[in-house]
Fold this protein.
Amino acid sequence: MSKPDEKMSNQINIELPEDVAGGIYSNLSIITHSPTEFVIDFIQLMPGVPKGKVKSRVIMTPENAKKLMKAMMENVGKYEQVHGPIKEHKAMGHAIPMNFGGPINEA
C-alpha cells in the first residue's frame, strides 16, 4: 500500500494563466523537426487574406511529440465514438509552399 506522501508526489500542479486560458484559433499547423526537437507552428489563415500568421509555436522533445501524437489519437477516437467520424476536406486547390529548411509534414 502506498503512503500518503508518495501519492501526493505523483501529482502535478498546473497553473493556467488568464491570458492563455482563452486559447488561440488555428486552421493550419506546420510540423518540422531536427534530431533533438519537434517544432509545431499553429497558423491562422483567413479567407481573402493572402498571408497566414503564426499564432503560436510549440517546441518539444521527440519523446514528448510522440506522447502528444498518442494522446491526440486516443482523444480523436473518443470524440468520434460520441460524435461520429470527423470529415476530412480535400486539400486546397494549390499547394502552400512552406519550407523552413527541414522536413515538412502538415497536420
Remarks:
- The longest strand covers residues 53-60.
- DSSP finds three helices and four strands in the chain.
- The helical segments are 4-9, 18-21, 62-83.
- The beta strands are 28-33, 38-44, 53-60, 105-106.
